[in-house]
Amino acid sequence: MLEVSGLTRRFGDMVAVDDVSFPVPSGGLTGFVGGNGAGKTTTMRMIMGVLAAHAGTVSWQGHQVTREDRRRFGYMPEERGLYPKQPILDQLVYLARLRGMSTADARQEITALLERFGLGARTKDPLEKLSLGNQQRVQIIAALVPAPMALILDEPFSGLDPDAIDAMADLLREHARDGVPVVFSSHQLDLVDRLCDRLVVMARGRVVTQGTGEELRADAALRYRLVLDGDAGWVRDLPGLHVRDVAGPEAEIEVVSPGAEQKLLVEATSRGSVLDFHRVVPRLSEIYREVTA
Amino acid sequence: MTTRKPQSQPVWQIVARREITVRATDKSTLIGTAVMLAVIVGVLGFTAWSESREKTYDLAYSSSASQAMIEGIAGRAGDIDEKVSVEPVEVADDDAARQALEEEQVDAYLRETSDGWTLVSLDEADSDLRDVVDQAIQEIVLAGNAQAAGSSADELTAGSQVTFDQIEGDSELSAIRWIVGYALAIVFYFASIMFGMTLANSVVEEKQSRIVEMIAAAVPLRELLAGKIIGNAVIAVGQMLIYVAVGLIGLSLTDFSFALPALSGAIGWFVVFFLIGFVVLSTLWAVAGALASRTEDLQSSSTPITMLLMVMFFGALYLDGTGEVIGSYIPPLSAVLMPMRLVDGTAAWWEPIIAVVLLLAFGVALVRLAERLYSRALLQTGGQLSLKAAWRLEE
Questions:
Q1: How far is C-alpha A111 from the chain's CA centre?
Q2: pTM as predicted
Q3: A138 contacts A92 by C-beta, under 8 angstroms
Q4: A80 contacts in chain B (CB < 8 Å)
Q5: Cβ pair B381:A79 closer than 8 A
Q6: Taking the CB of residue A202, how many other CB atoms lie within 10 A of it?
Q7: Which residues pair with A29 in a beta bridge?
Q8: Is the ipTM value over 0.90, yes or no?
Q9: Quick check: B391 and B373 in contact, CB under 8 A?
Q10: Element housing B125 (H / E)
């Protein structure tokens, strides 16, 4: 397990990352969400040691992470690229060698991955001769060799076409299934919702909420939707409820004092017929908007 | 997940190897090297060829007196300059001679005047021809005059021979020392600019293509810097060795070959100073690359170092006397001036040793400074950084 605790980084007077702590458990995908400037990239750079932390620690399997550990972490920086003029196999082997692999092992592993990504015939082509989508695939391979102990990916889905997004998602799931802790940042909340076991939400340099999808939803206030045969404006007068929205016969309410929803239902049936009354499960994007608001 | 035993090869070696392979297989490098070699071979070949070439000059005459004189010159030409021979050609008169000169049918026209002889040529006559004609006529006239006076040329010139002897070296070697000294300064200057610019470009390429963050996550930037500088130096020295080897082989085929043994010690020192000076300056070029964000910024971020190189180069050209002695100890100026003094033969044996120690100390300090600037500036991709801003950055 990879664990971040108390990470802090300032740039001048600005605190970019403030006391950030979260675990990245093995065998699951952890999604890292937040707006631009929330501190995700700075946090990931500190995890990789590219940027020094002013406070806090990153630990790997219970000990303070070392440079040797980090050499075996697969990393995809937000600002990424490769040598435009060097053949793709050569530069992937070079990067793998920098991360401690022998040339023979690197060649073997990289050739297999290039074939899997449909680039087996293009190993000698310089990167710039490849389409943008294929360049992204080469970039992904760069993070996957040598077989990573952990994956730290900053916006791995940005710039990918729908097919590549699916392939990337499969790849991440595959690594998570093999016991590799995976953390990735993304702006695509629905994708994060679909893929991730855990979520860390950052805003203005701090973690505003984190947990599994269910935990986040459980934390959110209970929400009900009510549809009547007449105007629903009267729900505003009931105590213990927060009315999110009323439009004609429809209303969406949040329970402030437990049990208030039962009183609402009794009141509603006494006034006429109730066409619909159900619990609303908020979407992740809604929770996100609430916690970062 | 598989476990492997960690490899033993240090990171800087992996980096240096990539630098060398990429550069050695780069088309523009290969073409540049081939062109440079062709120039060296061409210049030396031309020198050797023009030295060994025998020349026959056609000399025109329009009177029997000048015919006799030209035949006399032809008889003596081989003794005066073995590569020159003279062929008499008859013309009708001065006008015909002028026409023959303009049509380049003859090389020169010899005419008797009231007080001697005139050699007429279209433009300036070859110095070889002038020397032969001048000396031969003097000998012939002197012999004739002597005979008329009942004496001989040898008697008349007895005791007038002056020979020149210099205690230190000889004059021809001094001239060669001067030329070789400046040639070395020029080689240093151009090698530093050319290879320095290549290094700065390869640093900014890593920054511009954004690969540097992946590298920074895997290895210490100090080792990346070391690998790049060493790889670049290997390429530079390799290329220089090829040039120098071809140049020396070529030189040994010319008349200047006698100078080689006297200069070999100084050239050996030049290699030492070149290497240290080159590596020291390379770190500055790497910083210039790291301060830029795009290749376009390189021109301005490398201005301080090109200025420094200009100072070194013109210092080497214009400093002499005490200034040269002092400059030959001050790094990085010493990297050029001390080898030049050694070639000149004005430095004692211990002087280069002190200069090397000073240069090394300066180099170590500079490398540390450069390392800090390099590793801080390298991850800043938003536009060009000033030196001051880079120094203030935190890791």
A1: 29
A2: 0.77
A3: yes
A4: 210-211, 213-214
A5: yes
A6: 27
A7: A182
A8: no
A9: yes
A10: none
